Amino acid sequence: MGFSGFPDEALIFYEGLVADNSKAYWSAHKELYETGVRAPMLALMDELEPEFGPAHLFRPHRDVRFSKDKSPYKTHQGAYCGVGVEGVGYYLQVDADGLYVAAGWWMPGDQVLRYREALDDDTAGTLLEETLAALPGDLTVGGDRLKTRPRGTPEDHPRLELLRHKTLHAGRRFEPEPWLHTPETLDRVRSTWRALVPLVDWLRRHIS
């Protein structure tokens, strides 16, 4: 069955989970999660797969082994389409506040070194600056950043602010509106991801 939108019950489910993040709440509302959240998300990802590839739905349970917060469940449902480079791809999230649509790079590690090497190159670095500047104004650039400049980086480096990034992504938040409950959601997600293709392509080329 094709995607027809996220029902209002999906947002209501997460409003309740924010208020009562417990196994009792989850067990009592599991069917609502399956029909109002997971099934529409799977249908939406199926619609996007021909253009962006297969999606991975994140599990609803939190890994609390090393966290002070022992809340057992995530208060959102995320989905991710990778592009063959670890940590780089397209992301979508539904929660009590609506929809978050983004793309970019979320996985630090050895990739940080390759990212900085690319920014040191005037051609690749300038291209990233131009790519970010050309993004639609309703997209917000974010990511994990160093508070200071990377070791060995001169203070007058032309791309110092970008060099502080350990991850880099851009996206926008859609507040709950009537279209969220209709197939128009597919168009909103698709158009946002398409606007972010140049960023994903730069990342795929330069940090793989």
Explained architecture:
This protein has one domain (8-206): BirA Bifunctional Protein, domain 2. The protein contains 7 helices and 6 strands, in the order H-H-E-E-E-E-H-H-E-H-E-H-H. The chain has a 6-stranded antiparallel beta sheet. The protein has helices at 8-19, 23-52, 110-120, 122-133, 160-163, 184-195, 197-206; strands at residues 56-57, 76-82, 88-95, 98-105, 140-142, 168-174. Helix 1 crosses helix 2 and helix 4 (122-133) runs antiparallel to helix 7. Helix content is 44%, strand content 17%. It is globular, with a radius of gyration of 19 Å. The mean pLDDT is 94. A hairpin with a 2-residue loop joins strand 3 and strand 4 (98-105). The longest helix is centred in the first third of the chain and has 30 residues, at 23-52. It starts with 7 loop residues before the first helix and ends with a helix. The protein is an alpha+beta fold and 208 residues long.
Radius of gyration: 19 Å
Q: Per CATH, what is the topology?
A: BirA Bifunctional Protein, domain 2
Q: Averaged pLDDT, please?
A: 94
What percent of residues adopt helix (DSSP H or I)? Answer: 40-55%
Spell the H/E element sequence: HHEEEEHHEHEHH
According to CATH, the homologous superfamily is Protein of unknown function DUF1054
β-strand number = 6
Please give a quick description of this structure.
With 208 residues, this protein is α+β, with helices and mostly antiparallel strands.
